[in-house]
Amino acid sequence: MEEIIQEGNTVDQALEKALNKLATSRDRVEVEVLDEGSEGFLGIIGGKNAKVKVKKKEDKSKKAVEFMEDVIANMNLDIKVEKLADRSNDEQVVINLTGSNLGIVIGRRGKTLDALQYLANLAVNKYDDDYRLRVVIDAEGYRERRKETLRDLALRLADKAKAKNKKVVLEPMPPHERRIIHSALQSDSQVKTHSEGEDPYRKVVIVAQ
Amino acid sequence: MDELVEVIARSIVDNPEQVNVNKVEGSKSVILELQVAEDDMGKVIGKQGRIAKAIRTVVKAAATKEGKRVIVEIIQ
Questions:
Q1: Has residue B28 got a pLDDT over 70?
Q2: B65 touches chain A (CB under 8 A)
Q3: Where are the beta strands (DSSP E) in chain B?
Q4: I need a labelling partner for B29 at 20 to 30 A (CA). Which of A73, A89, A179, A203 fits?
Q5: A114 in the same domain as A46
Q6: CA of B3, closest CA in chain A: separation in Å?
């Protein structure tokens, strides 16, 4: 990681010089003040320069893309990795996979896609804890399609619970999928939902009211 | 397949230079022995083996094309 130590009349001036040298902006660096500096007598004699250490933060979204490219290349799949700029921001980066063997990277109910996403998050957020970037791995809109499938499932099973006036237990699902079920039924006052068990076997339960 | 395990392990441990994967090839299955620095064991296994499971899931997916059974073992 690039870092420099820069002096200046004041901390602000030193920082500004450092940012110029690194050709970056304040939000992309970590700053450590090594010396506040002092003005000295009448600002002429005995003044001491301020000193700052400026370190460039890693470009995590780039790292996420590189990690995925590396992994996909080693899986010997004809798949392209691209960052979706319109769905990415400071908090998350969305990476889309496209190509012919998508079934393999998605896996049964998205199991492989979830594993890839989990590993990408670990790889990207390995070092610092103060700035975490969430990595979302998608495959030609799979996440959105899955969301719809889960919403439909939730509504259908809620109807079943109401009709038979009993509780319906769903299959085990990862947290983000359970959340989709819960929120799909949140506005339905005739059923309540909660989760039971421990991950990775935690399941949603729909109970008729 | 061994490179895949290596790439993943290297990117999640603190001591990537100490990652080593040994391939033991059988007629129907391949065993990949993953070795990491002692301090990094937790980083490739994870709570309740979650990370190890994710690595195995990805490797298995990659292996489906080759039609071989691949087993990832983490050794000390």
A1: yes
A2: yes
A3: 20-25, 29-35, 69-75
A4: A73
A5: no
A6: 7
